[in-house]
């Protein structure tokens, strides 16, 4: 099957621009307002997604969060065709506020290699070409690059395994802020 046809079939299984059962953001980052540490599922995950989604109790961290996939579809951005759904990619990309020139990709700790074979490396390369740096958060480690070659290097091997083999400890520990 051709890559384009395969991609169309993957996209067709989701309502475009929706989470569609993805809850990676509910696992990957810390939510201080509810003492949820990084790399642990939020206690508010439910069958519908988030039990606090349309609630006044929704944490500010969650309100302020924006997934590139969702934002690109909401704004009908030309980049929406390039961004894989986080469930397909095993990762999502977001941009911290405050004028940061860094895009952050959070890798699904439940399936850390999936992003490498998805459309995510192409999207990260497109971001680098616009002048953004990329920070990849993977199982407690942070890797940064600002080059296409750096994206290729990070996608070519499991740098977490390499870091652990070299005796390095995770820099981002699963602790509540």
The count of DSSP E runs of length 2 or more, i.e. the number of strands, is 6
Low-confidence stretches: 10-14
**Radius of gyration using CA atoms only:** 16 Å
- Describe the largest sheet: 4 strands, mixed
Mean pLDDT comes to 85
End-to-end distance, in Å? 46 Å
The share of residues in extended strands comes to 5-15%
Helix-residue proportion: 25-40%
Shape: globular
Cross-sheet strand order for the largest sheet: 3-4-5-6
Structure description:
About 3% of the residues have low confidence. The chain starts with a helix and ends in a 12-residue tail after the last helix. A four-stranded mixed beta sheet has the order 3-4-5-6. It has a two-stranded antiparallel sheet with strand order 1-2. The chain has eight helices and six strands; from the N terminus they run H-H-E-E-H-H-H-E-E-H-E-E-H-H. Strand 5 and strand 6 form a beta hairpin. The protein has one domain. With 177 residues, it is of the alpha+beta class. The chain is globular.
Summarize the structure.
The protein is α+β, with helices and mostly antiparallel strands. The chain is built from 8 helices and 6 strands; from the N terminus they run H-H-E-E-H-H-H-E-E-H-E-E-H-H. A 4-stranded mixed sheet has the order 3-4-5-6.
Distinctive features:
177 residues, alpha+beta, two-stranded antiparallel sheet, 8 helices, 14% strand, globular
SSE order and pairing:
Layout lengths: L2 H10 L12 H4 L16 E2 L2 E2 L9 H5 L3 H7 L11 H4 L1 E4 L7 E6 L12 H10 L3 E6 L2 E5 L2 H9 L2 H7 L12
Parallel strand pairs: 4-5
Antiparallel strand pairs: 1-2, 3-4, 5-6
Helix pairs in contact: 6-7
């Amino acid at each position: 099957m051709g890559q384009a046809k395969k991609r169309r079939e993957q996209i067709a299984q989701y309502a475009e621009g929706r989470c569609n059962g993805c809850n990676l953001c509910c696992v990957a980052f810390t939510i201080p307002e509810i003492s949820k540490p990084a790399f642990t599922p939020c206690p508010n995950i439910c069958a519908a997604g988030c039990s606090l989604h349309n609630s006044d109790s929704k944490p500010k961290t969650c309100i302020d969060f924006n997934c590139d996939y969702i934002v690109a579809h909401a704004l009908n951005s030309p980049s929406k065709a390039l961004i894989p759904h986080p469930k397909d990619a095993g990762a999502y990309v977001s941009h911290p506020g405050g004028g940061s020139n860094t895009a952050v990709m959070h890798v699904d700790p439940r399936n850390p290699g999936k992003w490498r074979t998805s459309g995510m490396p192409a999207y990260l390369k497109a971001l680098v070409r616009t002048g953004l740096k990329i920070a990849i958060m993977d199982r407690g480690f942070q890797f940064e690059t600002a080059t296409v070659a750096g994206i290729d290097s990070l996608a070519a091997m499991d740098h977490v395994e390499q870091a652990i083999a070299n005796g390095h400890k995770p820099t981002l520990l699963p602790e509540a802020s």
